[in-house]
Amino acid sequence: MTNPPSPDKDGGAGKRKAADRPISPPPVKRKAQSAISKGAVASFFTPTSQKPKDRTVWMERGKDSSPATLLVGRFEPEAGESPEKRDRKKIAAFDLDSTLIITSSGKKFGNDPADWKWWDPSVPTRLRKMYMEEDYRIIIISNQGGLTLHVDPNSKAPKNAGKAKVANFKQKCAAILAQLNIPTSIYAATARDEYRKPRTGMWKELCDDYDIPEREVDFQNSVFVGDAGGRTARVLSGGGATAKDFSCSDRNFAHNVGIAYKTPEEFFLDEPPREFARDFDLATYPYEHGEKETEDEVLFEKTNERDVILFCGPPGAGKSTFYWKHLKPLGYERVNQDTLKSRPKCLKAAAEFLDDGFSIAIDNTNPDPDGRKEWIELARKHGVPIRCVWFKIPKALCEHNDAVRAMNKSLNPEARTILPPLAFNGYFSRLREPTAKEGFQHILPIEFKFRGTKAEYAIWAQYWS
User: Fold this and answer.
1) Which stretches does UniProt call biased (Basic and acidic residues) (predicted)?
2) Average pLDDT over every residue of 368-386
């Protein structure tokens, strides 16, 4: 007969002692990853009295009553700037990313404020020499579309995420300026407004800040250095290739300001210039005529007692301007979806005008045959011919025109805001050339030619997008 297990001292029977358990190594604990940098931790435990003074002062700016979109940081070294050094008319302005600095991690964009290094070791030495020995005012001018200074209260995005990005950017820039250690400022445009390069809003701000009248700048010796120069791709002799630049905004900015432009490779490494190309080149559209010639120019004739004129053209092609200058004087009533807000309302308004005996102009984009078919059938139903005015304008030029209109009140009688890229991409992806087979009596193609005063051309003939 088997004896029952004897109870242990706690009264339990048959319990296995800890020493009897199989022995195995404890699980390896994963080290918690902290988002706080070592520098931040050290700074936290450093007494305030022992912390170095932050020499960079930050400001936010905006136009009129709009929320601020321009971030400005001004650095003054401990020694300050002597009065005789303040009156500088030569300006050397630089883009920031991929021009003065790159990420030390190799990432395209670094979120860590410590993730940066000089684009080339020669950069800080060159900038200090320009300030100390060549009497240049050194400025940083950068587009920073990833930053948001004031979050839209209706946005569903996390509020703190935007604040953290701005704080990290300020910390990084403060470190850059401290290493450079010369009086300078950084201007960062965070929105697609008048501050964003190639527009000149940041340039005007720096001239005001340093009390330099724009006309007194030493344009001949000033320079802007940036990596967005519109350089084309090229195949290297030893194999491999160099990618094209993502845009031409830095070269265009320098053009607008009226100063020389150089890429970082040209400026810091003395490399020869590379070939470049612009999607839209102002040189293609010179000012060719005077105001009298513009007023007398006839682009459209009314050939029917009553008819429908259907526009086909992208946003920014000049359709509305064409209507007001050439069709309104001939008695045409305008039907426009931007005003009426929906296609059914446009069709209803057009039918009412035709019932009342008016000729009408359909001032919409109408890129595809299916959309144009509704208007052709409406004209047929009312027994009137329909003609098409086709605006054959390239996308880059339309984007330019749209930006000019939105950024200049004198050229924007309808107070239109700038359109997103989707508006242009959507039109050109759907575009099918209009043909007479669709039912048009006639198709009138319109090529772009600047038509306006010399003062208006001076505004138009800058790069805006």
Assistant:
1) 7-20, 51-64
2) 97
Checking if the pLDDT of 25 tops 60, the result is no
Helix-helix angle 421-430:395-407, to 10 degrees: 150
Contacts of 49 (CB under 8 A, 6+ apart): none
Residue type, 377: E
**Stretch 217-237: mean pLDDT, rounded?**
95
Beta strands in 343-404 (DSSP E): 360-362, 386-391
**Beta carbons of 365 and 430 less than 8 angstroms apart:** no
The SS3 of residue 163 is: helix
Which residue is associated with the tokens 């194999």?
239
Residue with tokens 């920073």: 144
pLDDT score of 3: 52
What is the Cα–Cα distance from 418 to 424, expressed in whole angstroms? 11
Say whether 409 sits in a helix, a strand or coil.
helix
Closest CA to 318 of 402, 395, 396, 388: 402
Question: At which residue do the structure tokens 């001292």 appear?
Answer: 9
More confident residue, 68 or 46: 68
Q: What is the pLDDT of residues 239-277, one digit of tens each?
A: 788 999 999 999 999 999 999 999 999 999 999 999 999
Residue of 249, 247, 251 lying closest to 261 (CA atoms): 251
Instruction: Measure the CA–CA gap between 261 and 12, rounded to whole angstroms.
Output: 88
* Backbone CA torsion sign across 172, 178, 181, 183: positive
Beta strands (DSSP E) in 50-134 are 56-61, 70-75, 90-94, 101-102, 117-118
Number of neighbouring beta carbons within 10 Å of residue 77: 14
